[in-house]
Design brief:
The protein is an alpha/beta fold. The protein has 6 helices and 5 strands, in the order βαβαβαβαβαα. It has a 5-stranded parallel β-sheet, with helices on both faces. The radius of gyration is 14 Å and the shape is globular.
């Protein structure tokens, strides 16, 4: 599984930790920035990761900002992206089981590295159930086609 990752300045420290964690666990990860805590605009980095996921070169994406909200809002503007803002294990699991989320947004200023690691593992290992949930995702995609 190839994973695209990015953050803004507020998520930079947690992004560095996550990137190192993923690499040490043998996962392929590409960092799309930012590379410091100097102020940047989160939509720019959400765009890079979402385009990477949509190009089919990356199966999943991870975005980190201060609260996770800005990245989540930005990512969900892309048709085909199902981004989840996650601060707990239940949301991580069910966003995959029922919603087939493909971008994980984390709040760098609200969770610690230990919880982030646990959320990552649950989110990366949980498979989509399909069935009745696939029908719902298809409805979401139809709504996206209707709204421009």
């Amino acid at each position: 599984m190839r994973i695209a990752i990015a953050s803004d300045h507020a998520g930079y420290e947690l992004k560095k930790f996550i990137k190192d964690y993923l690499q040490k666990s043998g996962r392929a990860v590409e960092d799309f920035g930012t590379d410091s805590e100097e102020s940047v605009d989160y939509p720019d980095f959400a765009k890079k990761v979402c385009e990477a996921v949509l190009s089919k070169g990356f199966e999943r994406g991870i975005l980190v900002c201060g609260s996770g909200v800005g990245m989540s809002i930005s990512a969900n503007r892309f048709k085909g992206i199902r981004a989840v803002l996650c601060q707990d294990l239940y949301t991580a699991e069910y966003s995959r089981l029922h919603n087939n989320s493909n971008v994980l947004c984390l709040p760098g200023r609200l969770i610690g590295k230990g919880l982030a690691e646990k959320i990552l593992e649950v989110w990366l290992k949980t498979k989509f159930e399909g069935g009745r949930h696939l029908k719902r995702i298809e409805k979401i995609e139809e709504i996206a086609k209707e709204t421009k």
